[in-house]
Design brief:
The protein is an alpha+beta fold. The two termini are 24 Å apart. The chain contains three helices and five strands.
C-alpha cells in the first residue's frame, strides 16, 4: 500500500528495523551515512536498496532536513555501491519513490539500484 511521504517518520517501518538489527538483511555496503542490501523481491537481475541511516521519509524530507554531510555521504554511497557491484559499464537505473502517486511502500527514503539486463523505457508508454 503506498504511503504518504508528508507524514512524520515511523520508526517501526521495516527499514528502521533493519538499521537497528531487528530484521536481517543481505548487506553489501555500510558506512556512517548509508546501508545497502539486496532487495528481497528483486525486480531486475541485480536489485540493491540503499538507505540513509537517518530518519527520513522521502527524498523531499531528506533534501530539506538532512545535513550537508548526510546528503553528500548518502549520494556518494549510492555511487560507490553501483561501482563496487560492477554496474557502471553496462549501465544501471536509480529509482527513489516519494509518496502515494509514485507507489512508495516503505516510509523510509530508499534508492533502488537496478541492473543486469536492458531495462527498457523508464515509464510504460
Amino acid at each position: 500500500m503506498p504511503i504518504d511521504a508528508t507524514k512524520p517518520y515511523d520508526d517501526q517501518n521495516v527499514f528502521a528495523k533493519i538499521l537497528r538489527g531487528e530484521i536481517p538483511s543481505n548487506k553489501v555496503y555500510e558506512d556512517e551515512f548509508a546501508l545497502a542490501f539486496h532487495d528481497i523481491n528483486p525486480q531486475a537481475p541485480h536489485h540493491i536498496l540503499v538507505i540513509p541511516k537517518g530518519p527520513y521519509v522521502s527524498w523531499d524530507d531528506f533534501s530539506a532536513r538532512g545535513s550537508d554531510a548526510e546528503i553528500a555521504g548518502f549520494v556518494r554511497a549510492v555511487g560507490k555501491v553501483a561501482r563496487e557491484a560492477g554496474m557502471v559499464a553496462p549501465g544501471y537505473r536509480l529509482l527513489a519513490n516519494t509518496g502515494p502517486d509514485s507507489h512508495q511502500e516503505v516510509p523510509h527514503l530508499h534508492v533502488h539500484i537496478f541492473a543486469g539486463r536492458p531495462l527498457g523505457p523508464m515509464l510504460a508508454r
